[in-house]
Amino acid sequence: MKQARADADTLIVSTALAVADAAEQAVVIVGTDTDLLVMLVARAASTLHMYMLCRRNPVTLYDIQELKHAIGDTSTHMLFVHAISGCDTVSAMYRQGKRKAFNIVHTKPDHVLLDTFTNTESTHEAVERAGEQFVLNVYGAQKFKSLNKYRYVAYKRAVGRASLSSSFSLPVCLQLVRRQSSIHIEHIWQFRNGWETHYLQQSAVGECMMMPSHLWKLIFPLLPPNY
Hints:
Elements: H1 9-23, E1 27-30, H2 34-43, E2 50-54, E3 60-63, H3 64-71, H4 78-84, H5 98-107, H6 111-118, H7 124-138, H8 147-161, H9 174-193, H10 213-219
Parallel strand pairs: 1-2
Antiparallel strand pairs: 2-3
Helix pairs in contact: 1-2, 2-3, 4-5, 4-9, 6-7, 7-9
């Protein structure tokens, strides 16, 4: 019997993968959380028979290997796509859905950019810049070198088109991109080190769980202040 002292998703998936590998038999995870499905697709080896049973209406059984085969190499980057486009921990980008982020990675992959998020040796500056560039790609603003610059241009355009009584939206701010990028780094670190309970969890008063110093150096500069 295992008990998660924090979020249980990582413990559920890591345990299921370990059982499937040791027992060499099919393993079924029962749940409805998208995080579980994404983690399984991203981390299940091709030799493991993994399934996820979703007991919603209609009841659905997902074959993880079929999903991995259908999306090919994109499965390697599913954690990044899920984190950058909004998950349990961070908000989604307004009017920019997961399908758009997935299609960018699946149809026009920038391997140099994406490899930044799968390389545990990447510096926080590299992660920050890669996250910013990907968000610019999502907004179709590849020609801009800075998200803040694009926000400024988008603001001027919106003001020029808007009336006094109308409202408009702006691209996501750079601080949120930093936060989303750091969440992805956390997922990678959790899976590769197997320490489910040692991940960043900020409380309302700003307290954090203990974490190895080398990971703090990587993640802490990416987090925006809580005002």
